[in-house]
Amino acid sequence: MRFRRSVTQYVVGVLSLALLTLACFGLGLDLATAAFLYLLVVTLLSLRSTALGAAILSVAAAACLNFFFTPPALTFRIARPQDLVAAIAFLVTAVTVTRLVVSVRSRTEAALEAEAALRHAAAYFTEAQRVSRTGSFGWRTSDGTLAWSKETFRIFQYEPGEKSTVDLALRRCHPEDLARVKETLERAAREGSDLDYQHRIVMSDGATKHIHVVGHAEKRKSGFEFVGAVTDITAAETARSALQISEQQWRDVFENNPTMYFMVDGAGVVMAVNPFGAEQLGHTVAELIGQPVEGVFVEADRAAAKEKLAACLARLGQSLTWQLRKVRKDGSVLWVRETARAVLRAESPVVLIACEDITALKQAEEKLQQAQASLARVNRVMLVGEMTASIAHEVNQPLTGVVAHSETCLRWLDRQPPDIPEARRALQLVIRDSHRAADVIDRIRELVCRVPPHTVPLDVEEAIREVLALVQGEVERHAVRLVTNFALDLPIVPADRVQFQQVVLNLIVNAIEAMQQVHERQLIVSGRADAKEVLIEVRDSGPGLDPGSLSRLFGSFYTTKPTGMGMGLSISRSIVETHGGRIWAVPNEPCGATFSFTLPLEDITLTKPPDADAPGIFSRTDQI
């Protein structure tokens, strides 16, 4: 770009000199006049040319003047000495003048550029002051002269044309800050110390602003001169005040809330605990801070506490809840429900824990479980009482066999000679029937005795068939046609065997009693499973259910039997829900009802043994 401009300037210069030469030569001008015109043209061309270009044009003009106008014409030879002096004088004058013109022009352009840059910088500075809410000032202490920028006027809400003085600034000063500001300014004017202070100013409309004043002092003969800045920090002060209020509120919540709060670092060390939490554990705050948090837990629960904290740290931002036991300083134990969340604090993870004392709730739950266990045992005893005739029948059959086989054994022994092999076979049958009678008694004892709940991998089909064997006498006595239908892949479930059998026994006895009013009595017990749960159904052909009573069917003390207590189904629901299952009932079409309940598998992968001849494995559908 610069090269093209230089070439253009040279071309224009050459053409200008050529045109001037033709004009002068054509007009027959003398040497002096032509020299003046050449000097004028070279000077004008140097206004847009560089120093080198101007020098070249000067030499070219001198050459033209010598060739065309110095005798003899049309030759570069100079005949008279005075003409040589004139040519040299012209060349020196042209070079000097053009150089001065170029120099002046360069300085003028530089000055204009500097002025433009200064205006640009001033505009930037003014905009920067407006954006940053920072104004500038100058203060001369000798005569009190004070100079403000536009932004300073805006901050104090004065018109820019108004004369700025220290008194003008102090008029805006908040009454509570006035004395302090005056003292600061007087000391600075006296000692020449730099300014750095904050205070409030009150606007004409009553609004309050916070400003920060800084200034640097320079010593002069007549006193000090300060150059400084005024920053409107109202927004920052408002935010800081709001933050202080918020922090105080959260501090009040943390220190005075009747809930235990802990802050634990990634290594499990207590960083903070509120006074209530320390008091609940019999410690002071200082005694707990810096100690491993696992130390406040019962020893048996410490491993679980570590696992929970690790789970929180692995799931930043997610809330987790658990129940564990903590130990007080005096050794007493309390149950707590803890809700925790891990967050990042200064680039390091911490766990925030809120602890609720649920000792009383746990004690109440324990008493309720004891009451429910007692009530369930009463229900089982009542069920066994209702099946006295059936149980007697079940026990009588093997006992009759014992007597018959014993008499047979005696007859074989009375022979001469005694038939020992036959007597041995008779005794084996006695032993078999004795075991059958003992099994019946054992099943009754399990149902009636007070045993603590114990969850084990339970073969559902086997447990149900044991109940069916127990009620076989009732089924025959009431002429009920019993059908079982169990899926081939019925899995093992985690459950308490006695409680599970109590639920099944309740439903079967209720079904048998419900069918006493009908002639066609059929009871279907079935079981199937999916990927999540096992479903057990007890279906009868009785009169069915009133749709209006379905919502109350499993409630306490609700019964449709004249002599019922209304506890069987309520207890069954409690047992099923404790196992994580559901229980419900629906009426059948055209008659009867179906009671169903589920038990979750809970990732139990145990399954029945594949041996089809193993105990508890029956055909797919059996009719009794």
Explained architecture:
The protein is α+β, with helices and mostly antiparallel strands. The chain folds into five domains: 2-109, no CATH class; 133-238, PAS domain (Beta-Lactamase), CATH 3.30.450; 259-357, Beta-Lactamase (2-Layer Sandwich), CATH 3.30.450; 358-452, Helix Hairpins, CATH 1.10.287; 454-623, Histidine kinase-like ATPase, C-terminal domain (Heat Shock Protein 90, 2-Layer Sandwich). It is 51% helix and 21% strand. It has helices at residues 2-27, 31-46, 51-69, 81-132, 150-156, 166-171, 175-191, 234-256, 275-280, 285-288, 302-314, 359-386, 388-414, 420-448, 460-470, 472-477, 497-514, 568-578, and strands at residues 134-140, 145-148, 195-202, 208-220, 223-232, 260-265, 270-273, 319-327, 333-345, 348-357, 455-459, 481-486, 492-496, 522-529, 533-540, 583-587, 593-600, 621-623. The longest helix has 52 residues, at 81-132. The two termini are 111 Å apart. The model is unreliable at 603-624 (pLDDT under 50).
Give the overall form: elongated
Give the C-alpha Rg. Answer: 56 Å
What's the name of the CATH homologous superfamily of the largest domain? Answer: Histidine kinase-like ATPase, C-terminal domain
- Low confidence ranges: 603-624
What is the number of helical segments per DSSP (H or I, 4+ residues)? 18
As a percent range, the share of strand residues is: 15-25%
